[in-house]
Amino acid sequence: ADTAGLSNFFQAEGYVVLQAENIKNAQKILRSNLVSIVVLEVALAEGNGVEFIREIKNHSSDIQVLVFTRDDDIAKAVLSIKYGAFDYVLKRDTLYANEHIFRLLIRTAMSRFQNRARFVDPEKLVGFDSIIGNTEAIQRVRLLGAKVAQTDTTVLILGETGVGKDIMAEAIHASGSRSSFPFVAINCSAIGKNMLESELFGYRAGAFTGALRDKKGLFEEAENGTIFLDEIGDMDPTLQSKILRVLENRTFIKMGDTKTAKVNCRIIAATHVDLLAAVKKGTFRKDLYYRISSFIIRIPPLRERSADIPLLVAHLVVKISKTLRRPVPEAEELFVNSLT
Predict the structure, then answer these.
(1) What's the rounded Cα separation, in Å, for the pair 188 and 193?
(2) Domain-located, residue 127
(3) 307 and 294 in a common domain
């Protein structure tokens, strides 16, 4: 088996696979993701793979570590099991020869993960950990999010109202290179055209009645970070042209100003609207659609991933109990089954 083969196997099982070239990068992944399984090569160019198992287990004893080793490193592999590794496999063996180990590994990891969900503080879930679920559908969404987070590409998130488009946008921001800078969000359907323009781009004093002083817009507030344009499909066509200018030239003009201002932020947009149908109807600009749709993530509704309901119930029970400052109850199986 090789690392590419292992990666393909776990992806086929619905897992999001993140790869690290060294221990430093692996530590970063552990800090920013809710990891269930680590496949670790015992012979590392930098650092001690066996010692790193201790660090992984100190981070979370529920993480299952599978050691990947050569024949001449079997002694280290055996030692790694004493340090808490689940098992080891030899590089020379085929995936088929070890499939029973991989299946048992996945079952063990899933069991630990589901139990852990009852005790995780919801406020500590960051990045893609905040997207709850383990079905293939939601794992695929997390995989797409993790991939695009490492780039600066404009992202369009599609999905019905309530599926968590805002959570995905925040996860992409938190996992990307702009995470230490602001994440600014606005619902484009919640306010009128004129107010939305002033909120997005700001204004100069005297631009309109009541504009007593200069005001920064959200594009300025999001400098070096990310701006999330929720429900962009409901945006007025006049404003759509101004968003297009930002995407094309990274510039805008404040209300009441004549000077061009530059902007440096990532744009993530979302909508429940069928934008291609809106383009055909003439309510959404075709050129803007192609600008924002360079990378599309569709979040499935819960009815398409009902197997995630038990995990969501566990998560929400903890969250609500914390808000109400009450002990965390255990949801009865009959109740949970009635939801699925």
Answers:
(1) 9
(2) no
(3) no
